[in-house]
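ZP: hey, is the adenosine-5'-diphosphate complex queued? I don't see it on the tracker
AM: it wasn't, my bad. submitting now with these inputs:
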Amino acid sequence: MLIVQKFGGSSVADAEKLRRVAGIIADAKKAGNDVVVVLSAQGDTTDDLIAKAAEITSHPSKREMDMLLATGEQISIALCAMALQEMGVPSVSLLGWQVGMKTNSDYGNARIKTMDPERIRRELEQGRVVLVAGFQGINKHEDMTTLGRGGSDTTAVAIAAKMHADLCQIYTDVEGVYTADPRLVPNARKLKEITYDEMLELASMGAQVLHNRSVELAKRYGVPMEVLSSYVRKPGTIVKEVTKGMEETKISGIARDDKIARIALVGLKDEPGIAYKVFRVLAREKINVDLILQSIGRNDTQDISFTLAKTELEHARAALEAEQDAIGFDHINVNDKICKLSVVGAGMINRPGVAVLLFEALASAQVNIRMISTSEIKISVLIDADAADVAMRAVHKKFFEE
Ligand code: ADP
Ligand code: ASP
Ligand code: MG
């Protein structure tokens, strides 16, 4: 079998943990498999590197930022190769460019275009475990790029897809995918399996256990994935196309996204073309918006509110303020102390009861809902950040503990 194993930052944080990881890798190798390993930077390394850049400048060049951030993963793979060699397991560490990980030039959030498995194949043929730096690639100018925070998962799935691996294992600091983040909801349950679609929705709604683009790739290429613990050796959660008993389960999980903010434009004219004027400005600035709410204001006016990534808040506010006269609004309200809570599940199609259960749980916990959005397999509500913990537990109780 060809197995791709990925270990996250906390799993490789220090020498002792690296040795444990090397033990897991060595076992897979000794069982007769070809093993390709993708590693993240150790512990908080990536955050520390971002902080170092901030000490120098508040507006670093994106190219240099990626040059800096890509260093973290290099440390992990070299150290892990040494740990394996120390155990008598032949191994070699390779950077993104050495495995032909070609990306576009969107520094900080680059997308993989191609991957050349040749070098990895040659090393495997020599009987070596191949350790690849996650999260990085090179663009057409042969400059370093990074794939976005949490992107090592996507490196692993890309390699698994290209090399037709039999399994892509994502080792992390929890035992699998749970019905909610087990750190926030102590009663969260581990799922045996989950569909790509549900996992993609959970990850996109803020469940950071998997990079959402890794799930997208896994679905597209049919890569079987397993999320499991690097601390306890037991089966984790299988992510695949179809799961058993899909019809019986209404929802598979609850996710929360704290990295969002809301902008409200108050006192817009109530006439055709207003929404276009507002969102045209944001589109021009390449700012993504998520939930949108249009509501009736006073004296023939209307208000438009929308959510966006917290990191884009100031950029969006400035762009809109610059166009205040052209758009024609009274003032802007912003709120960055909000969060989006989503319940996700393929089984909620044609089950109107799910929304009511969600609202009932929030009502009984005295949590105010500010916006609502629904799709075939999820319902999201916008709530105040300080109510998020209580809300998560109340909603989890309603769906999974009653
Ligand atoms: P790694 O460094 O291994 O990539 P991450 O921190 O990116 O790990 O992801 C693992 C974390 O994801 C867990 O520690 C957990 O707090 C969080 N998480 C959020 N939602 C879920 C969920 N539904 N199931 C499991 N973990 C979750
Ligand atoms: N080291 C990178 C990050 O912290 C990538 C990853 O861990 O997946 O975001
Ligand atoms: Mg991660």
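AM: back. Residues 2-173 form a domain with the Carbamate kinase fold (CATH 3.40.1160.10).
ZP: great, adding it to the tracker
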